[in-house]
Amino acid sequence: MTQASLHTNINWQHVKVLIIDDQLSSALLIQNILHSIKLTTVDIATSSSSALQCCRTTSYDLILIDFHLEADINGSELLTAIRKSNCISAHCGVVFISGDRTPEVIVTSMTMDADSFLSKPLNIGILKQRVVTVYQACLLRRPIYTALENNQIPTAIRLCRQLLQQHGHNIEIEILLIDLLLKQQHWPQAQQLLTLFSQHSQNHKLVLRQAQLTHHQGDTSAAICILQTLIQQVPLFVEAYDELAILLQQQQQDDNAKVIAYKALLLTPTISQRSLLVAQLAVNTNDQSLFIKVGKTVVNHLPIIDDDWIVYLAQYTARFEQLHSQQLSPQRQRRLIKQLKKLFQQANRRLTHNQKKCLTAFRHITLARFTATLQPLTTKRRLLYGLRRYFGQMSQAPTAIMVDALPLLIHFGETRLIGEIYQILMTRTALDPHSHYRMAQLQQNKFLVENVRLLVAQLATAKATITLDPQRAYCIYQTILRDYPYNTEAHLGRIASLLALQQVNHLHITSSLQQMKKMPLPSPLLEWFEQLQHQYNDQHIISYDQFSPSSS
């Protein structure tokens, strides 16, 4: 099918286009060009927020997006957020536009599965031709992606085959077909088609699939050789670096994997997932210098357009914990913590006002995790300071904050917050990778889970016994505090039991009150604490009056 016949056959009045560019003059120029080829529905968004709103209200067939948008958001981050929120269809065409021709911009754009990349200043003829070509590709793949959205992979495979039979060689459809066969583990069919397609083209994407297939068939060494050759031939094909780094890591060649993964990161520093792979390999090889360098890349490119920024930061700090827990001297551990604090400061400069509040909470919780055994009371205070802004509204807390707080809450036996967080997490339809990993770790520890259940039952029994048998309640609370010496509810219950026994001068009241001093508490416990303080003060005054020299 020729471009002329295609242009004639397309009903442009039904095609909807969105131009995303923070420079309105540039967007208007593109809009006028598109109007000249009979495109009537051409919307403009000059910010990431307006772009998201447009995509939520209109189903676009094509998106033309400038790579450099606002100061802290680029086109790749915006496209990721749009796709994540399911605001555009899988078959929607994407064209990146930029006056920046650096390898980073071009490679990052193509890594986002864009259909095309155009350089500014735009050539009117090339822009028109590219819009036609991209929309043609959209029309071809629409039934395939519709089948995939309905989880009908066999149907999608059949449609790919039909399209290739009808229209002949099409590298994008060929790649999609191979990917689907690999996903279905149809190795012989994938190999047969790869051999056939390679006769038409020595495309680097086909070579990558050949390496993947070779690995799946059990010859990882040969797959590594294919990828090493491919990188030499196509040095900007960043997906080959990703695949090679992963295979080298699986072969326990972490040093070699680290070198390859870092090269991919240098090509696309805004892709946070690549930063995390390098960070993990730096941990595996105890390369603290590279780990901190990667941390700077992470915080300087946090995708602040949605909540993904805190997920990536949490994933990095989880790797930081691994590095910190290795056999390092206390001095080196302190230096690492100092570096982490600097990274938080850098991240703070990039974030919005509300995100900074969230970062403060996350920072308190993260740093608390490193002092739990050395300074338990300080750790608990810091943990609760981190959660304080979510007291009474825990559902507004990012999942990453809740799951990172849970291990410490369990350690201190804070059952009320544990129960509240757990109930919220169970209602969330999907957990991000970091939260899923943290929850899996906790749920695997059956002993820990059972201890929390036992603690809940003990606290309930003790509280119900305070009025009827305060001495028994006191003994139960003492038993709890032996296992959980910093449990808030047990300390409050012990004070209540001793006051019920009229033992206002008991040393345990003083020590428990000292622990509660300046400790942020959620509403039910705070109210109980204030009530006990008033009761203690009243009884203490009465006791003082009874035994003072003036009263005698």
Lay out the secondary structure:
Elements: H1 3-9, E1 16-20, H2 24-35, E2 41-45, H3 48-57, E3 62-66, H4 75-84, E4 93-98, H5 103-111, E5 116-119, H6 124-149, H7 153-167, H8 171-183, H9 187-200, H10 204-216, H11 220-233, H12 238-250, H13 254-267, H14 272-284, H15 288-300, H16 308-325, H17 330-350, H18 353-368, H19 376-387, H20 399-412, H21 415-427, H22 433-444, H23 446-465, H24 470-483, H25 488-500, H26 507-516, H27 523-547
Parallel strand pairs: 1-2, 1-3, 3-4, 4-5
Helix pairs in contact: 6-7, 7-8, 8-9, 8-10, 9-10, 10-11, 11-12, 12-13, 13-14, 14-15, 14-16, 15-16, 15-17, 17-18, 18-19, 18-20, 20-21, 20-22, 23-24, 24-25, 25-26, 25-27
Mean pLDDT: 91
Number of helices: 27
The percentage helix is 55-70%
- Unreliable segments of 5+ consecutive residues: 1-8, 544-552
Which sequence of strands runs across the widest sheet?
2-1-3-4-5
How would you characterize the largest beta sheet? 5 strands, parallel
- Tell the overall outline: elongated
Decide which structural class fits the backbone: mainly alpha
Strand content: under 5%
Radius of gyration: 30 Å
Cα separation of the termini = 111 Å
Number of strands: 5
Structural commentary:
There is one protein chain. Helices cover 70% and strands 5% of the residues. The longest helix has 26 residues. It is mostly helical and 552 residues long. Helix 9 packs antiparallel against helix 10 and helix 20 runs parallel beside helix 22. It contains 27 helices and five strands. A five-stranded parallel beta sheet has the order 2-1-3-4-5, with helices on both faces.
